[in-house]
Write a structure and sequence with these properties.
This protein is an all-alpha fold. It has helices at 3-8, 10-24, 38-49, 51-66, 86-102, 109-138, 145-152, 156-181, and strands at 27-28, 35-36.
């Protein structure tokens, strides 16, 4: 087996899935949407692995949780799709993809910051409507759009601050790891 493929193939994808799971356990428990440190790892997955492998790492994370491993902030199993916060977890897949897509050809700090901010936007675009839908149709507790936005956007200030630090970390790590993780991308 080609050593470059082995190092740049499955192991980084599994590592980013595991780090996303670890981020679920660093949390501030709040009703409906706990504040966790998962999104930095989601963004790093895209920044470091590129769009497809970054998104794949989040698919691995989701499948691992849905088959029953307790890797989500409140556990795991197929019933987790009924949690109000599950939409954010679904949003991790396109968020990692977008972060990787934006930084695919260039890895300046500005580009990494743009990738992280776009990933946050994508995650919230998926997560907030899912929250409102679960509240209305599953928990039979419909809420107005303003209330859904208020609850759904509660982690946003933390995500913006941590996101800029994540962009810097991703920028620095990408420069050091690029020959190993993404030999096809120029600096």
């Amino acid at each position: 087996m080609n050593r470059g493929y082995a190092i740049g193939g499955i192991a980084p994808v599994a590592l980013m899935a595991a780090l996303t799971a670890a981020g679920a356990f660093i949390k501030i428990p709040l009703p409906y949407i706990p504040i966790t440190l998962q999104i930095p790892f989601v963004c790093l997955a895209g920044l470091l692995l590129g769009p497809w492998r970054g998104a794949t790492s989040q698919v691995v994370y989701l499948v691992t949780g849905l088959i029953g491993f307790p890797v989500f902030a409140k556990g795991g199993g197929p019933q987790y799709v009924l949690e109000p916060s599950f939409g954010y977890l679904l949003g991790f897949i396109p968020a990692a993809f977008v972060a990787g897509l934006i930084t695919q050809k260039s890895r300046t700090y500005g580009r990494c910051a743009l990738g992280v901010l776009a990933a946050l936007l994508v995650d919230y675009i998926v997560g907030v409507p899912y929250l409102a839908a679960v509240m209305a149709f599953i928990l039979a507790s419909p809420m107005e759009l303003q209330s859904a936005l208020k609850i759904g956007l509660l982690p946003l200030p933390k995500d913006l601050v941590v996101g800029l630090a994540t962009a810097y970390l991703g920028f620095r790590m990408a420069r050091a790891l690029e020959p190993v993780l993404r030999p096809d991308v120029g600096r």
